[in-house]
Amino acid sequence: MTKINIEREAFIRVGTTLYKLVNQPRLNGGYVRKRIPWNAETLRQDYGKGFMASVPKYDGFCTVPNHVDYKPVVDKFLNLYEPIGHQPMQGDFPHIRSLVKHIFGEQYELGMDYLQLLYLQPVQKLPVLLLVSEERNTGKSTFLNFLKAVFQNNVTFNTNEDFRSQFNSDWAGKLLIVVDEVLLSRREDSERLKNLSTTLSYKVEAKGKDRDEIAFFAKFVLCSNNEHLPVIIDAGETRYWVRKIERLESDDTAFLQKLTDEIPAFLHFLAQRELSTQKESRMWFNPMLLHTAALQRIIRSNRNRLEIEMSELILDIMVSVGIDSLSFCLNDMLPLMTNTQVKAEKHQVRKVVQDCWKLTPVHNTLTYTTYQVDYTRDCHYSPIRKIGRFYTITKEQLEIP
């Protein structure tokens, strides 16, 4: 008969439910800590009647994230947030520094702020970080694995299907939700992602269990090979930080292990470092600091057909007559649009101008110069002076980076 090693097996009681704590083997090596509901009668059969009195008892569960001063129990409630096993110590971290520089480029200090906030202020809302590149071997997945190595069981890898699932108990209460090869091109996906990135509480749902509302502090890190439409991002959206990642110059198969070895030194550095930014929005960063050409490219790719035709038309006028900005009223645009493949009504043009391009007309009725089609000259457009409350748009606003 096999002898049971009591020292290696642990049990807890939370509320009225008994759990066995086990280390579940993982496919890629190592273990993940799990709580398995257990039967009290089975426990008595295995260890005797007196063993039940020694089982630690808690009133319930809570989720209190902290990486520096972690508490496994808070006021008789068992903390579901996992501690990270790294002990910060002084040292250098050249490989981590090179990875952060590669991912964040000219926004290196902002990237360091992002990682520092994750470590020291885990409940602080942060923008959705989206890494895109059509090339292979860019280090996007390495960065995700690095985040996993730093924050360990508080990071979960999801698929697009996991994100859409109504059952979310396995990723609620995590610090980071990462999705490799993301493709959330449906409007409902985009709305859910935006709402989750800013919500303070969330309904947790598991199969066979009632829904429960908990505090939600997870941050999203997404990767995609689609630079144009990985997710739907509308003009004026401030919840995304999009970085285009360049191809790595070399491929070091031991790079992740080198990163992992440097984590204690890196955490010591983050604990001592002074943030380069101050909180300027609910997601900490001033949105203007995070605006990139990669973000603008995705926004442009989300345009409807009318907006695309209007953009091409105005750019054609600018090139033809040699100007960098165009003034117009809505009624000026309608006859110009008759020469395109898109039929447009005034209210549709107004929606593009005001909602998509975020333009506002001048406050008073003034004289301005606009252009109309001229079939009698080599130049297709000729200037005309008008009076009205006109809009002005520049070539820079229309051109795709």
Number of domains: 3
Kindly report how far apart the N and C termini lie.
72 Å
Given the helix and strand composition, which structural class is it?
alpha/beta
Count of separate DSSP helical elements: 14
Strand content: 15-25%
Overall outline = elongated
State the CATH topology of the largest domain. Rossmann fold
CATH C-level label of the largest domain: Alpha Beta
The CATH architecture classification of the largest domain is 3-Layer(aba) Sandwich
- In which range does the helix fraction lie? 25-40%
Strand order of the largest sheet: 9-10-13-8-14
Largest sheet features: 5 strands, parallel
Task: Describe this entry's structure for a reader.
It is built from 14 helices and 18 strands. With 401 residues, it is of the alpha/beta class. The chain folds into 3 domains: 6-58, no CATH class; 94-300, Rossmann fold, CATH 3.40.50; 304-398, no CATH class. The strands form 6 sheets. A 5-stranded parallel β-sheet has the order 9-10-13-8-14, with helices on both faces. A hairpin with a 2-residue loop joins strand 6 (73-74) and strand 7 (77-79). The model is unreliable at 1-8 (pLDDT under 50).
Q: Could you give a short description of this structure?
A:
By secondary structure, the protein is of the alpha/beta class.
